[in-house]
Specification:
Keywords: DNA-binding. InterPro entries: CB, DNA_brk_join_enz. This is Core-binding (CB) domain-containing protein. Residues 1-39 form the Core-binding (CB) domain. This protein is mainly α. 49% of the residues lie in helices and 6% in strands. Strand 2 and strand 3 (120-125) form a beta hairpin. Helix 5 (79-89) runs antiparallel to helix 7 (128-144) and helix 9 packs antiparallel against helix 10.
């Protein structure tokens, strides 16, 4: 190599593959710090160590590879698929809550979607893309099933006119994704990406409505050096 701009995440993984314990943690932490500094000074365009895991990999949260994420919305064939992907990949909504979200809780005028979590509510503030996709879905749904009384935001051919008003099946949601990818992985990737970007557990809690313990887990994965000296 003639420049560090040529380094890829695969190169770093190859270097760390045969290391373990303290040796692995020290080298991985050094690589993370090095490439973060180079990126900050704009000496490299992309940080290959951004998602580099430090320490034991067992049970560690891992981001979805960027090549799997690229073009998901472009390849989604229906308004149903595009809105489902946006809710998981942009707003980190769990699959269960995507299934049970209600049309009455979507307010396009305000640009919000309220998610029901037991007695609690979590408000999503829809950015332009998701707002556009939600509007497209509502238009499509009304044109396709104008007589549907199902209160759920997402409906399918089977559930739209079902008098029992069921939520769409989880498998129906999963079918919008290519093989090897799940909505849970998209959600995990989104939260982990935000943790790498901000390192702020309070922001993660506010943005995604997750618990303190969950937020700390993601931040600990993104920045293990911050928690390495905490008592166990």
């Amino acid at each position: 190599m003639t420049t560090l701009r040529e380094v890829t995440p695969d190169h770093l993984q190859d270097v760390l593959e045969d290391l373990a314990g303290t040796a692995r943690r020290q080298l991985a932490t050094s690589l993370r710090s090095l490439f973060r500094a180079l990126k900050r000074k704009r000496l490299i365009f992309h940080d290959p160590a951004r998602h580099l895991a430090v320490g034991d990999l067992t049970g560690t949260l891992r981001p979805v590879p960027s090549d799997l994420l690229a073009g998901l919305l472009d390849h989604a064939a229906t308004p149903f698929a595009r809105l489902t992907i946006a809710l998981a990949a942009i707003h980190a909504v769990p699959a269960t809550e995507i299934r049970t979200a209600r049309t009455a809780d979507l307010n396009l005028a305000r640009g919000t979607l309220e998610l029901r979590r037991g007695l609690l509510r979590h408000t999503l503030y829809l950015e332009e893309l998701t707002h556009h996709l939600a509007a497209d879905w509502l238009t499509y749904r009304h044109q396709r099933w104008p007589a549907s009384a199902n209160p759920h935001l997402l409906v399918s051919q089977k559930t739209a006119l079902d008098p029992d008003h069921p939520a769409v099946h989880r498998n129906t949601l999963q079918q919008v994704l290519p093989k090897g990818l799940t909505l849970d992985r998209l959600r995990q990737d989104r939260i982990l990406d935000e943790a790498f970007t901000t390192g702020d557990p309070l922001k993660l809690m506010r943005l995604f409505g997750i618990t303190e313990q969950t937020a700390m887990r993601y931040v600990g994965t993104a920045y293990p050096e911050r928690t390495a000296t905490l008592p166990r």
